[in-house]
Amino acid sequence: MWANDIEIISIASEDNNLMFEGVEFEVSHTERFEKAMKMLSSYGPIFNTHVNQELIAAKCTTSALFQQLNRVFELFDLEFKVALAKQTTGDFAIPQNLVDDDVALYRSLGSIEAVAKFYHDKSRHEHINVESVNKWVPEDDPERGLVMDFVSEGFTIDEPTGFIRNKFAEEPLRRRHVQLAPTMNKLTTKNREKEFCILLPSDILSDEDRARGHSALGGWAFKWDANECRQTIDQSHSTLGMSLNEGDAKDKAISRYGPVTLPTISMIVDDWYDYAASQGVYLSQCIAFKDDINAAFPSNHIKPDSVYLMAMYITSGLLCIFIRGCFGWTGNPMMWGVISRIMERFLRKEVSGTVHIFVDDIICLSLITKAYHDKQKVHDAIRSFFNNFEAIKLSKSVPPTQLIDTLGSVINLRLTMTKASTRYFTSFSRSMRMRFILYTRYKF
User: Fold this and answer.
1) Using CA atoms, how far apart are residues 231 and 328, in angstroms rounded to an integer?
2) How far, in Å, CA of 440 to CA of 444, rounded?
3) What is the rounded CA–CA span in Å between residue 42 and residue 50?
């Protein structure tokens, strides 16, 4: 169990430094941090060396303590990752040739819309396209028309009522953005190399493009279970007027693409019992597996006349304009919901067992004798639909097993028991098998 691998040592210290895996950094002592640490100090026995899961579970009798545990470790983990990002990206700068390529293309084609369309056409056979939709989505599928629009024109970003585009006005970069400029540069470079975005200096844009444009603040977010971080565009906050996510933006996305409907763990398990009964077996005679879809949002391109809304400044004067789906716009989950519902429907026709999709996680259950065959069918179908062998993220693929950790629960099919996943004791931890060594000025 993860708890047997965790070692927490507190050492009284005059400074606020924390050392973890050779990275030293300072932990900010906000009011929230002080309150959490004070509360935790009364639970000293929890933090004995080699803590065990049962002891933590016994002490976490109140939701308040559970929340404080999460807050403290979230703060430690975030500050660690900031320090790690600075250490691993050094003084990374965006390669000038990437900017030069987009500038040359812009001057040749004449508009941002035309550049976006050029890249969409160029990558048409590397993502979902008309041919793969025709192969996998039947004529009578209720959302076939929407997905056909995605692959032929791109998905539309609706502006909220009263929204006024800021004509690529430049806001001051956030303190964290400036602090982590090399990290932002590296993330931007990765996205540009994958042709998820284009890079253009704002001073070369035509008056017509500038009038159509809107820029937002840039950001980044760490994945809770890894050191990796992803680039985001903050469409929810602006000092220059109304932001793209305000007002009725979400309602418009729901009206266009439908609401997000996700299965709960109870719904999934109920379906598993129904499936077992339909096969005349006990649930203990079934086996589950899980797969993760790689780069879900970027698998769809933005309609060329909507990309004007998805720009942010990476450095002073340099715009990063997303041409494929990205994190930050409130309508992305609704847009992706169309794709996930379609996939769920055609996968259920392919495999012998059950299929549920939670955002980009595919969760399946089959008879033990058929599970490996069903898993291969899932892989083949998804790779074919996305026109990409890497559409299945093999590093997160879970082979057929009777002990599966999914949606915050660990399900034991052999014993037909479910318990809370220990991965979520600290919501932003890199891994529950890490060893913490905390050097703080507090004694637990």
Assistant:
1) 9
2) 10
3) 19
Please say whether the dihedral angle defined by the alpha carbons of residues 203, 307, 324 and 232, taken in this order, is positive or negative: positive
Residue pointed to by tokens 């008879």: 367
Q: Which two tokens stand for residue 107?
A: 């001057």
3-state secondary structure 333-387: HHHHHHHHHHHHHHHHHHCCCEEEEECCEEEEEEECCCHHHHHHHHHHHHHHHHC
Q: Is the pLDDT of residue 284 over 70?
A: yes
CA distance 409 to 419: 6
The model's pLDDT over 130-152, given as tens digits with 9 standing for 90+, comes to 999 999 999 999 999 999 999 99
- Could you tell me which of 400, 416, 394 has the C-alpha nearest to residue 367? 400
Q: Both ends of the chain: CA-CA distance in Å?
A: 23
**What b/e readout covers 108-143, taking b as 16+ CB neighbours within 10 angstroms?**
eeebbbebbbbbbeebbeebbbeebbeebbeeebeb
**pLDDT category, 207, cuts 50, 70, 90?**
very high
pLDDT of residue 238: 80
Task: Give me 287's structure tokens.
Answer: 């086996």
Token pair for 249: 């933006």
Instruction: Tell which residue, 3, 14, 107, has the closest CA to residue 48.
Output: 3
Give the chain's length: 444
Give the pLDDT confidence of 69-90 residue by residue, as tens digits: 555 555 555 666 666 666 666 7
Q: Using CA atoms, how far apart are residues 259 and 331, in angstroms rounded to an integer? A: 10
- Could you give phi then psi for residue 199, rounded to 5 degrees? -120, 120
The answer to whether residues 150 and 128 touch, using CB atoms and an 8 Å cutoff, is yes
Rounded to 10 degrees, the C-alpha dihedral 22/25/29/33 comes to: -40
pLDDT one-digit tens code per residue, 357-381: 999 899 999 999 999 999 999 999 9
Measure the CA–CA gap between 188 and 186, rounded to whole angstroms: 5
Percent of the chain scoring above 70 in pLDDT:
73
Tell me which residue has tokens 């698998």. 299
Cβ atoms of residues 25 and 82 within 8 Å: yes
Contact between 424 and 74 (Cβ < 8 Å):
no
CB-CB neighbours of 86 under 10 Å: 16
pTM: 0.77
